[in-house]
Amino acid sequence: MEAGPERSRAISDLWNRTLTQVPTTFGRIVYLASLRDANSGRYEHFGLAQVYSPEEADRAIRESHVEVFAEWLDYPLAQQRRDLEGYLLALEEDKGTVLRTWVALSPYRNLIPTDANAAQTALFVSDLELILEMMRSEASSSGPNQGA
């Protein structure tokens, strides 16, 4: 069994069964990053590992994470913002609370693929921080109980 076709099938399965169900690119980044073990850096997905192997699952998720991350970085800032707003709307948590927490703790830094280069990392952080600041500024100017 060749690694190439297996990897392609694992990636196809990941996309067809899971990632296409996530409505935003940012949401896909969050989902894929959540599959990465914080201690080992390996991506783990029980279903994929059962059908293929833990190594193929790791490789498929890793490649998909890099791909989705690069896709989001290629968006113009306005599209990044719309995509992020779509992600935030789907959360159960209050948007203002999320914005305050993200500004205070920067959890979005954990969303960066380990294979991202320094330029991609810097661009992601700067774009996201700019968008967050715009959202917080607009929310705080819209009223005392509506802002972040």
Describe this structure as you would to a colleague.
This protein is mainly alpha-helical. It has one domain. Helix content is 68%, strand content 0%. The chain is built from seven helices and no strands. The protein has helices spanning 3-17, 25-34, 46-51, 54-74, 77-90, 95-105, 118-141. The chain starts with a helix and ends in a 7-residue tail after the last helix. 23% of the residues are buried.
| Number of domain units | 1
Calculate Rg over CA atoms.
Answer: 17 Å
In percent, how helical is the residue content?
55-70%
Give the percentage of residues in beta strands: under 5%
| Number of strand segments | 0
Outline the biggest β-sheet.
none
Number of distinct helices: 7
End-to-end span in angstroms? Answer: 53 Å
Q: Please tell me what the overall shape is.
A: elongated
List SSEs in N-to-C order: HHHHHHH
> Which structural class do the helices and strands define?
mainly alpha
**Mean of all residue-level pLDDT scores:** 90
Contiguous uncertain segments of 5+ residues: none
What is this entry, summarized?
This protein is an all-alpha fold. It has one domain (3-141).
